[in-house]
Amino acid sequence: MQTKIGVEQSIYVIVIIAKQKSGEAVKSQALSEILGVSDSYLKKILGKLVRAGILKSSASKTGGMSLGRQPQKITFLDIFEAIEGETPFLHSHNLRETVQTDDIDEFVKQADKALSIFREAENSYKSSLSKYTIADLLY
Asked: What distances in angstroms separate CA 94 from CA 21, 85, 87, 112, 115, one per listed residue?
């Protein structure tokens, strides 16, 4: 499995914002310069983080991006799901239903078992991400 680069960039952005004195907002332009990416590209990432409630956006002269939650309440899973979405890692296309075999019941049983293994691995992965927060990177 490969995550989008936006997950890593999001972590950096959130840490940068979390380290601002007095919760000062940071302009997206400044963030894009720090990360070396285009502002329009970064705004798409920031939009996902805002929709997830991880960041807040304020459009004013002194506005910009600020934390939507305390660092200890922003898990790595929150960030992962904000960028990657919440769809399962493995999507069953029900191919098992089209397989031609004499023992279709056994084949379906084994296919279900394989899908279950992937779900278990995904749950473990997400459980691990949920144990760590942005606060773990700040102190």
From this structure: 53, 22, 17, 10, 11
